[in-house]
Amino acid sequence: MPHTPIKAVIPAAGLGTRFLPATKAMPKEMLPVVDKPAIQYVVEEAAQAGIDDILVIIGRNKNAISNHFDSVPELEDKLKDKGDTDRLRRVLESSDLADIHFVRQGEPKGLGHAVLRAKAHVGDSSFAVMLGDDLIDERDELLTTMIAEHERTGAAIVALMEVDPEHIHLYGVASVESTDGDGVVKVSGLVEKPKAEDAPSNLAIIGRYVLSPSVFEILERTEPGKGGEIQLTDALQELAADPDGPGVYGVVFRGRRYDTGDRVDYIKAIVQLAADRDDLGPALRPWFKEFAANL
Fold this sequence. Notes:
Strand order of the largest sheet: 5-4-1-6-11-8-12-10-9
CATH architecture: Alpha-Beta Complex
């Protein structure tokens, strides 16, 4: 496939019930990870991969997300007047990352339904789906590899990661066949949140996909599956089973991923990212060691 610009879709309409009461009035995507909201890391990842057109799927009470990526002249002017150039730079970064659009999901009916809401905006473009619960470390390559594989094959591309069997029931899981590509597998089947004993492998789908617009036709006729929701996994399963189509391939990711969808993992993500920062790590790392020694 020739190189064409792709768009990104970030589903952000979930209720964030695992983080109540913090998410009673604040979107879970706006929970801070050190000093940036989680969704900003995802937008930055898209921008670093060369994507400058991003659609965020939002729900009720999610206006804080659009506000965050908008300019705030009164704040910017105050920082200018104070000569606080470092904070001004960081504020401006969030509104200059990409051309960001928003559409409402309405009734939340699952990830597949959220992706389907992007149909009008995406049009004939290929697009990346990026879940805000999964943060990929900026030092590790994933999305650019997935885009390149999609351009090479025309296939749907999913990100896969080896997962401990005791956690496999939390993910969509892939049956795979080896290929000649390093770290690339052909996906022959997918199952959503299987029991450990029923899982076809330990390769779980994490929150990155690169898809062609043909997936919308499948999603439009996909019946609600597990949990009464329209599952993107079911549409991908149909693509994988089509003998005449380009199929589904997986890029196996072995880098640093931070899961912010779970309270314990969210805290771990903050600790790990803060410890690695040049401005925070030197003060934090000795304290971590002292704290751990006293547990």
